[in-house]
Amino acid sequence: MTKSIELQKILEKFGVAAEVELYGNGHINETYRTLSNDYILQKINTNIFKEPEKMMENISNVTSFLGEKLTAGGGDPNRETLTIIKTLDGKNCYRAEDGSVYRMYKFVSGTKAIESGAKKEDLFRAGQGFGRFQRLLGDFPADTLYETIADFHNTPKRVRDLEAAVSADIAGRRESVRAEINFAMECAGFASVVTDEMEKGTVPLRVTHNDTKINNILFDAKTGEAVCVIDLDTVMPGSMLYDFGDALRIGASTAAEDETNLDIVSFSSENFEYFAKGYFSEMKNVLTEKEIELLPFSAKLLTYECGIRFLTDYLNGDTYFRIHHEGHNLDRARNQFKLVRDIAEKEEELKAIIRTLMQE
Ligand code: ADP
Ligand code: GN1
Ligand code: MG
């Protein structure tokens, strides 16, 4: 069966007949849009998400909860949160005979995703958008959430995964990335800062998104306002520091995540400031002292964590993140490590920005 016929058969399960094309730049799922721009069809990556039905139940519960809050606040749930299109037999996703799993969402129209090169205004709006998302989920019953990926932001565990990949050297690439491995290990000392504070209780567990890269929030194509937080696969209990830091990883970078000219890769303190301003407009009064203190650090931690995940995947032979060319994961890792160095140099400046914003 050709891909197109195969997809038509899948679409029928959702009661939709339409032409589709590949869409978006996600690293995990396979995303299609209908040419009519009505629907998004996604093939869920079941190597990563082992129990997609349970994950979809999380997403269904979270989007229903958000929908009610948005309606109560005069918002538009059809635009401001994802809407699942169920299969004709009432399920949140369709499991084909070969085990592949598909889901469908309403296409959030009149919006754009920002992949890189975000401006400070975009960062303010992204901060508002992700902040609002967390605020609205502040009283969501966290214990009802299924953990879609265990230890997702457990950075010390990510370091151990890297060590295991280095030892196994399954793709025979270890010697070519000695410098990167050494850098990763030199930084490992700060990997446990957030998990340690969470154990102490100074950084509380909240319902968080856990994958706040800037293309996981859609902006109004005309006004530029943040409209809808998408990619809800990893909504789980976590720290707000994960969401704050991860959003800045690409949002405050002066270049794309896979830019290989590292001279043009740096961390914009101005974008950091604007993101924090937007985030504070929703969450300032909710944060603990420790969370506030660790905001600048979170950008470094999450960038480091992502860098070591790319490096680990490179060593493992590129089995996790979608790549578009040989060495893509290594390019991404080097890029993230350049940013880590830059954030480290700017950490005092970033702390001063937060102090000033706290006084406003
Ligand atoms: P991945 O897990 O692979 O990152 P995403 O769910 O983030 O998959 O989708 C990939 C891209 O598809 C997004 O960055 C966005 O550009 C686009 N997209 C996803 N869902 C929608 C939607 N409901 N409406 C419009 N665009 C969407
Ligand atoms: C993946 O799914 P996507 O492309 O929005 C990854 C994130 C990484 C990011 C790096 C489930 O995000 O954790 O930070 O790539 N998502 C998952 O760009 O692993
Ligand atoms: Mg995504």
Number of domains: 2
Series of H and E elements: HEEEHHEEEEHHHHEEEEHHHHH
| Ligand names | adenosine-5'-diphosphate, 2-acetamido-2-deoxy-1-O-phosphono-alpha-D-glucopyranose, magnesium ion
- How widely separated are the two ends? 61 Å
CATH class of the largest domain equals Alpha Beta
Describe the sheet with the most strands: 6 strands, antiparallel
Task: Choose one word for the global shape.
Answer: globular
**Which runs of at least 5 residues are low in confidence (pLDDT < 50)?**
none
List the total number of helices.
12
- The CATH architecture of the largest domain can be named as Alpha-Beta Complex
| Full CATH superfamily name of the largest domain | Aminoglycoside phosphotransferase (APH), C-terminal lobe
CATH topology of the largest domain: Aminoglycoside 3'-phosphotransferase, Chain: A, domain 2
Rg over C-alpha atoms, rounded to the nearest angstrom? 20 Å
